[in-house]
From TrEMBL:
<feature type="transmembrane region" description="Helical">
    <location>
        <begin position="200"/>
        <end position="222"/>
    </location>
</feature>
<keyword id="KW-0472">Membrane</keyword>
<dbReference type="InterPro" id="IPR000515">
    <property type="entry name" value="MetI-like"/>
</dbReference>
<feature type="transmembrane region" description="Helical">
    <location>
        <begin position="242"/>
        <end position="268"/>
    </location>
</feature>
<dbReference type="Pfam" id="PF00528">
    <property type="entry name" value="BPD_transp_1"/>
</dbReference>
<keyword id="KW-1003">Cell membrane</keyword>
<feature type="transmembrane region" description="Helical">
    <location>
        <begin position="125"/>
        <end position="149"/>
    </location>
</feature>
<feature type="domain" description="ABC transmembrane type-1">
    <location>
        <begin position="75"/>
        <end position="264"/>
    </location>
</feature>
<dbReference type="InterPro" id="IPR035906">
    <property type="entry name" value="MetI-like_sf"/>
</dbReference>
<feature type="transmembrane region" description="Helical">
    <location>
        <begin position="12"/>
        <end position="36"/>
    </location>
</feature>
<comment type="similarity">
    <text>Belongs to the binding-protein-dependent transport system permease family.</text>
</comment>
<keyword id="KW-0813">Transport</keyword>
<feature type="transmembrane region" description="Helical">
    <location>
        <begin position="77"/>
        <end position="102"/>
    </location>
</feature>
<keyword id="KW-0812">Transmembrane</keyword>
<dbReference type="InterPro" id="IPR050366">
    <property type="entry name" value="BP-dependent_transpt_permease"/>
</dbReference>
<protein>
    <submittedName>
        <fullName>ABC transporter permease</fullName>
    </submittedName>
</protein>
<keyword id="KW-1133">Transmembrane helix</keyword>
């Protein structure tokens, strides 16, 4: 507990604030449907695009539905899908990158060239092709976004692992006869986890923005479900009236991305994350 408290004290206030925002929206993925005042599709007033009030803090949408409830329900799609896709991208990239860095040779060359080919395809073009071919179901969106951002995560992880693998303490472990699994788990991974987590945060933000853009074009989550990008698109008519229905989902996206960036800035350093070097094997 003392070690955890010491590390938390090293995190700037901005990082704690950003982390709190991110944790709040992650909690809404699990609890949003329970704490929302109304069902997502319930028409609560015959007047549309009502302004913010005590009864409807986010106003009402183009059908008279409560926007606060819609935003809370939408968190499960925007945040949930982005989180799952980011875990796939960063997890796959980390594993492949460390394997390529340790094994080197033909395996490294094949993985690097294959993922270089994938990263050369513009992300939105790839997304449009996948959605056109397979539809826009939630599994397709998760796998599509995860695949798009795996090459970038791979390149970061491989570069970090190659740098750590050249250090003396790794050479000492190899000379002791330690296996590849031990070297990856005990020597390389603890020394790259900070930058990898920072990169994971960036992947998460990129995926949120990609999925919001797809939904704004009508190619993301489909009715009756809606993520935040869909909420902005379907309430665009309220923009001319200054209705909060079009502003609040956009602010939710902004708060999530800003919060994650603040957390990344605070947690990106090795010291804040407890990144370490095995000083017992190298001076």
């Amino acid at each position: 507990m003392k070690l955890l408290a010491s590390r938390l004290r090293r995190i700037p206030i901005g990082g704690l604030f950003g982390g709190a925002i991110v944790l709040f929206w992650i909690a809404m993925v699990l609890l949003g449907a329970r704490v929302a005042p109304h069902d997502a599709g319930e028409i609560v007033d015959m007047d549309v695009f009502l302004p913010a009030s005590a009864q409807f803090p986010f106003g009402t949408d183009y059908l008279g539905r409560d926007m606060l409830s819609r935003v809370l329900h939408g968190a499960r799609y925007t945040v949930g899908i982005a989180l799952a896709a980011a875990l796939i991208a960063s997890g796959s990239g980390l594993i492949l990158g460390m394997v390529a860095a340790v094994r080197r040779g033909w395996l490294d060359a094949v993985l690097s060239r294959a993922l270089d080919t994938l990263i050369s395809i513009p992300s939105k073009m790839f997304a449009l092709i996948v959605v056109a071919a397979f539809g826009s179901s939630i599994p397709v969106l998760v796998l599509m976004a995860g695949t798009i951002y795996t090459p970038g995560a791979y390149r970061i992880a491989r570069s970090l692992a190659v740098g750590v693998g050249a250090q003396d303490f790794v050479r000492v472990a190899e000379a002791r006869g330690e296996g590849t699994g031990f070297i990856v788990r005990e020597e390389i991974l603890p020394n790259i986890i900070g930058p990898v987590l920072a990169d994971f945060g960036l992947r998460f933000v990129f995926i949120v923005l990609l999925l919001a853009g797809m939904s704004f074009l009508g190619l993301g989550i489909q009715p009756p479900n809606a993520d935040w990008g869909s909420l902005v698109r379907e309430n665009m008519a309220g923009l001319y009236e200054g209705a909060p229905a079009v502003l609040m989902p956009a602010l939710a996206i902004a708060s999530l991305t800003i919060g994650m960036n603040l957390a990344i800035d605070a947690l990106g350093g090795r010291d804040a994350l407890g990144g370490r070097r095995r000083s017992g094997e190298a001076g």
